[in-house]
């Protein structure tokens, strides 16, 4: 990256009436370069969605905006693309928590799916979380159910089948209805 160059933020895909909003730490450098969520080819996000049943086919990162029609949106706790979450500052997290809370309150998706336990604990300021719905805690934003899913990063050590099974809980919940 050129010195003094600031990479563009990846635009949110949000709307009223969404079933799920996927929330990441922040965009990868690759996502910042191409302007789409989960664009790093080593990231398993799109494969996880397809294998869990959440999408009817395998989507490409360049199609992220099309998922609005399926009732799914995207945002991050921090908008600035970085090499890794360790590059996010405490100040960015503090600002990001407030901005994310405002987005969730404005758009009120049925489910806020945090893509990684760290994303959820950073947002909620709770020290730990289990996989799945966080029903043991009051929601941060009234009326928005919180779901914690594993990170889709290719660096995650959990087997892909286990990750898909956790995301499948979202699919099952949507199919059954609240």
Automatic annotation (TrEMBL):
Residues spanning the membrane: none
One example of a Gene Ontology biological process annotation: base-excision repair, AP site formation
Domain Uracil-DNA glycosylase-like: start-end pairs: 12-160
Keyword Phosphoprotein among UniProt keywords: no
Protein's organism: Paenibacillus graminis
SUPFAM superfamilies: Uracil-DNA glycosylase-like
Entry annotated with the keyword Secreted: no
Gene Ontology MF: a single term: uracil DNA N-glycosylase activity
Protein name, entry field: DNA glycosylase
One Pfam family from the record: UDG
InterPro entries, A to Z: MUG/TDG, Uracil-DNA_glycosylase-like, Uracil-DNA_glycosylase-like_sf
Keywords associated with the record: DNA damage, DNA repair, Hydrolase
